[in-house]
Predict the structure.
Amino acid sequence: MLKAALLFILAGIAEIGGGYLIWQWLREGKTWYVGLCGGVILAVYGIIATFQVFSSFGRVYAAYGGVFIVLSIAWGWWIDKKTPDMYDIIGGLICLVGIAVILIPRSG
């Protein structure tokens, strides 16, 4: 489970970071190579996800969606300096519960 968690976090940082660089290029007027770096990082994100230990693509991406939400809230707080409000925190906690439910080991 530790490997899965680390891969989810690494994929999230790559996806959010790559998207952020493209945002900086297109919305904030940064140079084109900032956007290019963002695109390369987004491609790396797609590769990272394939290293997950779970066999179901849908289950991996469903659980990752919750991780992405939580990491996006954290990114906004740490990078954009936007403190999450009570609703952000509650929503993030709900996502963490959803991740746990999706990844609960079960037979069949």
About this structure: Residues 2-103 form one domain.
